[in-house]
Design brief:
The structure holds two protein chains of two kinds. By secondary structure, chain A is α/β, with parallel strands linked by helices. Chain A has one domain: Spore Coat Polysaccharide Biosynthesis Protein SpsA, Chain A, CATH 3.90.550. Helix content of chain A is 33%, strand content 13%. Chain A has a seven-stranded mixed beta sheet, with helices on both faces. In chain A, strand 2, helix 2 and strand 3 form a beta-alpha-beta unit. In chain A, helix 1 packs parallel to helix 8 and helix 4 packs antiparallel against helix 5. By secondary structure, chain B is mostly helical. Chain B has three helices and no strands. In chain B, helix 1 packs antiparallel against helix 2. Chain B is rod-shaped. The chains are: A alpha/beta, B mainly alpha. At the A-B interface, helix 6, strand 9, helix 7 and helix 8 of A face helix 1 and helix 3 of B.
Chain lengths: 294, 83
Amino acid sequence: MRAFHVTSTAPARTYYGRPGRQAFRLEDFEILTTILSALEWRRHNGPIKLYTDTIGAEYYAQLNLSTLWDAGIDTETLDQCDLKTSPTVFWAFARTVALGRERCPCVLLDTDLIVWRNITALIRTPFMAIHSEPLAFGVYVEKERLHTPPGYIWDDDWDWTAPPLNAALLYFGRDDLREYCVTKGLEFMRNNRLEEPGGPAHAVFVEQRLYPMCARKLGLDPTFFLQNYQGKRLADGTENTIFTHLWLYKTQLMHNRDERQSLCRRMAQRIVRDFPAFGDVLSTIVPVRPYLHS
Amino acid sequence: MRRRSRRLRATFLLRFRILFDSLLTSVPPPAGPGAGFAAVDRMIDELRAAGVSVGRAEDPIGTDETALMPRAADTFRYGLDLI
């Protein structure tokens, strides 16, 4: 199963405060989760590719991580992207752009999500997400509150009661669905300019709400790997021993040094344990080197 | 006292909702990373000092919104024990 990571440096900052653009750099815990996410995917599930821009690729090269993605690094797709949108508001826009270059079956994987086993047997429908999210979450607002591009017309066939999903891991098994999601996602973001930082509702709308509405229109409601967003159980009710997701914990790690160091030590040790040959690479990465010997 | 408590609670819920929306998704809380959690803790302390009962629902998306923010950091992550 082929997967891809997406890292765009276009947003001025992430929601947890890490800078982008010319100031782009990853936090230590981001570097380590990215490495674990890629290597564990390769080990258990198959090839993985990175979509990033030139700034991102140069940064990963400085970290000696250019070979982390065995299916290569694509900079052309994001460098040539001309959406004329607000990247800091639609901070996940690059994922939809990258999805447009892929072919099914494929998995869109967040760099802070780690898959510890083969998931082939868990795939049961053409469209799957890591878990659903309650429509009651405050970020899922009525369409009247969403800012649209000039001349944009909502599709009357979209069902706004379709449950949102979390897009940290998305499986696409049918190209017609993938293409429809990409087309409609890009239509919503193209020339859609909001004053930054804008509203959080816009950031998650395309992947987490528009995609499931597109899927429902095609009769392909998503199914999920996990029972719910708390992540304790797989969809079949058994304990979750497959997926790790830092998710909003990143916000906490940004200002809690003890927790950050503890987590980074564990991740560095796990990388060395599972991939001994990668220890040499880790030892060259200045931000994470201290965790190898502590 | 009761009227003041109701007013305080209503103000809290409004401020809380704004902060929660910020933390849950895409933009940093108004004063930077992590500030939202501290701000809500302060709000809860203010409410309790004013004699307002602040619940701690087990369901983080339940009807008791006052319980959401302090629990958010522990709720919106999973599988860390697998590392």
